Amino acid sequence: MNSAIYAAGAVCWRVVDEKVVVLVVHRAKYGDVTIPKGKVDPGETLPQTAVREIEEETGLRIALGVPLGVSTYPLASGRDKIVHYWAGEVTDEAIAHSTFVPNSEIAAIEWVTIKKARGYLTYDRDLEILESFVKLLDEGVTSTFAIIALRHGKAAPRSSWKGEDALRPLTDRGVLQAATDVPTIEAWHPRRIVTSDAVRCVATVAPLAAATGIKPRRDSGISQDAHEDGQGRVREIVGKRVRARKTAVLCSHGPVLPEIMREIALATGTMPGAYLNDAADLDTGGFSVVHLSATNPSSGIIAIETYAPVA
Fold it and tell me: Looking at the structure, do residues 128 and 148 belong to the same domain, yes or no?
């Protein structure tokens, strides 16, 4: 049985003269016009791949936005290729720092209108992904930010810990989980890190803080102790992050995560449902990426992605 080949890419977009344009690539080897994408390297997650491949193919550094869907199609070898796509807004800064030069793989990159892209893209499967993006565009929720709810890494068992619960450290596995989460979370370019003041949460975000240069803000309001004592301030903390409209990581505890998810829904006028509990039901080191509109936060939760820890 042939195993599938996984790949990832993005519909890169920006506004030029008040019109949304998307990026297509002209591939020299295949003589086609397609959405930028590429194969997963060993040890990579799909979001990592999408960001890396966009930069390699187009010279643009992007932050991922909303997931747009998956294309599956057979290759000549008989194996299936499975490609995951996201939206990716391209900033003026990214354009200014683009490093693209034509090469043996990509002959040219081109910004085109949605109408032109529909007649330009070689493959129907790319058109389906483009239409997923157009649906977001029609709903006015293309510009997005994310709240990333992160459960701390594996900690020393409560039953065998003699000191204060808040001082429980990460195990070796928890330390590894914290480190291996970093490249995936970075795909959404977080701008803020807020963590419970418990040692196991502070230690979990330390590698992310080191990689991004963001100083984490410790807040007991999302700690397990505060939750158990009825002193939590989840609503206040989540509300502040929704109002800020900047991608943020909230690192907390298993019992607190359902409340965090519920407050994100309430803050954005989203109907509650079992999906919120599913997104909060994370293993240690796991996280959920909750996508919200940057221009119309009251439009509700647009999408949620959940990632298990790599380690």
Answer: no
Q: Over 80: is that where the pLDDT of 297 sits? A: no
- Alpha helices, DSSP H only, in the chain? 46-58, 92-96, 114-120, 124-138, 172-185, 199-212, 224-229, 234-244, 257-267, 274-280
pLDDT of residue 163: 87
Residues 159 and 285 occupy one common structural domain: yes
Percentage of the chain modeled with pLDDT above 90: 91
- Residue range of the domain that includes 131: 5-138
Residue recorded with tokens 């301030």: 233
Strands 248-252 and 144-151, bridge-based pairing: parallel
Task: Say what the pLDDT of residue 95 is.
Answer: 95
Residues 281 and 212 in one domain: yes
User: How far does CA 237 lie from the centroid of its chain?
Assistant: 20
Could you tell me which of 272, 276, 194, 266 has the C-alpha nearest to residue 235? 266
Q: What is the pLDDT of residues 163-187, one digit of tens each?
A: 899 999 999 999 999 999 999 999 9
CATH of the domain at 73: 3.90.79.10
Residues 152 and 121 in one domain: no
Residue 142: predicted pLDDT: 87
Task: Check whether residue 9 and residue 98 sit in a common domain.
Answer: yes
* CB-CB contact of 257 with 148 (8 Å): no
- pTM of the predicted model, to two decimals? 0.96
> In a 10 Å sphere around its CB, with 0-12 CB exposed, 13-18 middle and 19+ buried, how is residue 157 labelled?
exposed
